[in-house]
Design a protein that fits this description.
The protein is α+β, with helices and mostly antiparallel strands. Helices cover about 35% and strands about 15% of the residues. The protein has 7 helices and 8 strands, in the order αββββαβααβαββαα. Strands 4-3-2-1-5-8-7-6 form an 8-stranded mixed sheet, sandwiched between helices. A hairpin with a 3-residue loop joins strand 7 and strand 8 (about 160-165). The radius of gyration is 17 Å and the shape is globular. About 40% of the residues are buried.
């Protein structure tokens, strides 16, 4: 993807996420890999008001090449790319239902959400919970690093989801599926449910990776 196309795609996605209430205020950030580094949303800018010309252009060593200063969670994007060589984009949101699930006391930190739907299994898979760190704390990167080789999506405790995808559209589809599954999980709390069986999950993982 060219720089110009990537800039437009980031802004288009940001506007869409904001308009649909999946992000709010200046929360959330998006990045796309380009040949000489990454294009990333700037710090303290709402995703609903992104300007292609003002996006941060970051070198692979983390230095700013051009544009405004990047999100203070740029290090989180970098660790996702470093652990997943096939990643073409990373999306991080503070989406309401995913954050709500991240603060529940009785969740499995190895796999936070049950396999409620086939599309959740196909697009997200297993979702580990990362312990809480204050916003901008670079120690978070070291907590995430051991997980990204096995998982392209993680849930940050009391914070929100981070998803890497082979493309921006793949990362967006996965994080939206994650948010919808979190919403369903909360809606079903207290009810008897019938999640997919281990055999059904295994078939999906075999067919769709």
């Amino acid at each position: 993807m060219s720089h110009a196309a990537a800039r437009e795609a980031i802004c288009r996605l940001g506007h869409s996420l904001y308009a649909r209430g999946l992000t709010f205020g200046s929360s959330g950030n998006i990045s796309v890999a380009v040949p000489d580094g990454w294009l990333m949303t700037p710090t303290n800018v709402t995703l609903g008001d992104l300007d292609p010309a003002r996006l941060s252009h970051i070198a692979t060593d983390g230095s700013l090449i051009a544009g405004e200063p990047p999100t203070k969670e740029a290090f989180l994007h970098r660790v996702m790319y470093e652990g997943r060589p096939d990643a073409g984009a990373v999306v991080h949101l503070h989406s309401t239902h995913s954050v709500a699930v991240s603060v529940l006391a009785d969740i499995d930190p190895e796999d936070v959400l049950p396999p409620i739907t086939a599309y959740y299994v196909m697009r997200v898979g297993r979702l580990p919970l990362v312990p809480y760190f204050p916003p901008g704390d670079t120690a978070l990167a070291e907590a995430v690093r051991p997980l990204v080789g096995k998982h392209h999506a993680v849930l940050l405790a009391n914070h929100g989801p981070v998803v890497a995808g082979t493309s921006l559209s793949a990362a967006a589809a996965a994080i939206e599926e994650l948010e919808e599954t979190a919403k369903l999980h909360l809606m079903l709390e207290g009810h008897r449910i019938r999640p997919l069986t281990p055999e059904q999950v295994a078939v999906l993982r075999h067919r769709f990776g």
